[in-house]
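Task 17 of the worksheet. Students: predict the tertiary structure of the chain below and write it out as structure tokens. Keep your answer in the requested format; marks are given for formatting as well as content.
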Amino acid sequence: MKYRLTIFFLFVAISNMLACRYTVREIGFADFGKDQYWFVLFNDGTISDADIKTFKNTASAAMLDANIIVEVIDVKHNDSPLIKYYNNYTGSIKPKIMLISPEQRAKEFFIDESENFSLALWDLIEEIIISPARKELTNHIIKAYGVIFFVEGTNKEENKKARALLNTGIGEIKKIMGGLPHPVHIPPYVITIKQDEIKDENILLWSLGWTKNNAEHPAIAMMYGRARRMGPMLVGNMIKQDVVENMMRFIGEDCECGLDRSWMLGTMLPLRWDSKLKAAVYKEYGFDADNPMIISEMSQILSIAPERVNNSIDTDILYGYSESVLVVTNAAKKAKAPIDKPIKKPTLKSAPSKKNKVIKPILVDSSQTIPIAIEKEKTKPQLAEKKAVTVEGIEEETFTFRDALNSLLLGFFGILIVGAVIFFRKYRKNF
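Model answer:
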């Protein structure tokens, strides 16, 4: 009996070892050091040594738990790559302080010389690391599926339409939350930022990529993990039903290497993430997201995941492929490949395009080219088996990392079965 239990537990251990341990939203709680903001004082010679010291000490202490690095740069004697943001500023008066995002955008700040530097600095730091909406986010993002910022525009009709699409998407997520790799019981939490609240959320909206040019239209930003943004901010006509649902589904997916790591690890907001929040993550998920071994394990997962150049929100972000329907035209039906002649080296002949169709050739031989009209079919993103179409028009399956894992698992099963047969034949008298 004990031998049977040994084999059973060995089987369970191997299965768990091959399974992915984290979901996208869980990986999002780790800080890999790639989403740092820079809070920079540019010293042009007019700032006193006392104020420089105050800036270093005050900002470093206040931002200790935030993903922000404090630095002082002498504009006359410094070759830091951050100096370009100061030099590229085109205003009439150069800013003394800038906040620079991981997405290479800079926001300038000015402190009036008549103000008390220390008091003005404190107010600025508080504005940068916390705001009402970000505080509300930290209250919900650990236990909820995610947090969604809904920024109202001046167009009330568009606001109503976008909100309806968002509510429908959340309803679809509610249906599948219990069947996810790691089930979630609390649906996405929505934080609405009204027009009269935009001023108080200046830093938050800037970090999300929102600008005053977007003020007329509603905007949506999906957050997960350690206040990471999933994909781009959706503004105006970018808010579509399939796009909203697709991006929300991705948050709860398994961290398989078939997922795009640039979406798996979205840019974080500038935010204070203190020990209480870290303890809450550990209590909820059972792992320390700041443990170097955990971060190393997650980094290995991310290193396997592919990174696509084109992260279009209109394609399936789970696999990065789009589906098409092949329609053979009349010209294609008439064309026949010669049977009694050897196949020669194919040559490519172009075919004319038609309305709403992309004509691509299928090669038969040097004398025959079958034009194929490919009509794009708009399908809802889904977890499906990927397939590739060769130039001959024949479908063949692509070999993915998931297939490799399945093969490896089958190999282990085979070894276990053979070993079990040999073991039982040798020790069957003990059973």
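Marker's comment: Residues 5-19, 308-312, 315-325, 331-399 have pLDDT under 50 and may be disordered. The longest strand covers residues 368-376.
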